[in-house]
Predict the 3D structure of the following.
Amino acid sequence: MLEMKANHLAVKQQEVWQVKVGREEQLNATLQALIIKRDQLKAELKANTSLQNLRTLLDKTNAPCERDVEDMENGSENSQTLLLMARHTQLKDLLHAHHLIGGYNVLLTKGKGVCVSIATAYEGLYLETYNLEINLQCKIRISRHNIPPFIPLETMVKQGNMQTDIRAFLDTLSQYLNAYVGRRQQLHLVKEIHNSVQVMESNALCTILVLMFTVPGEKARAALCTLEYNDHTQCLPTRVLIESEDTALASSPQWKKDQALLLETPVHRALVTLKKKGSIA
């Protein structure tokens, strides 16, 4: 009986000890979790304080430098975040300057000159980028460029006052280039989308476009449509003519409406509308 009581007491003590050890482990785990949480809160508080200091510094200077940020948070966990904030502010300043000069990318070149890049786009699609290397030593002049030869660059330099208002010169040149790539892109889309429309003639500047299509009716007949772009700063034609064996076609009310559509809508989209209306096959 004594041996049984002793064994029972030993088992009881073992169970109590295990419960005690488990409780201690649980308390230690809770303590460690609380310590980690405390450290995280301290780090967040320090980061928030540092960020507030940085914002105050940026508001005062408007020109932060990475060296100041490194000195402020050297060796801390949040130094990378602070550097990213400083870099973000610098990029905002660059974008502001980019906006002030009209959206052109300007890079310094060897000597006293800059390289201006003019990007072109049509209907949200970025196309070619053209570059001008401008010498600024005594008199502003263009040293090198890759502007297409049919763009009247020399005429624009002579007519415009590039010496005193280079922004206006760049704006005019950008209009010419964007209008040119827009007309060229329309020609490309006409060839790609409209199998029933044949491009009979076009020039390098894409200011003349002659299309041949079929006009449906009791007797289908072919017609030549000529689009003239006399304003080289625009993507829309200034004159639309039609030639056909049916002489009455050019003076018909339907063609007058189609002519107005071609004058007001890019040609590749106007042809889609004309086909849906049944004006062309």
Confidence is low (pLDDT under 50) at residues 61-70. The first strand starts at residue 105 and ends at 108.
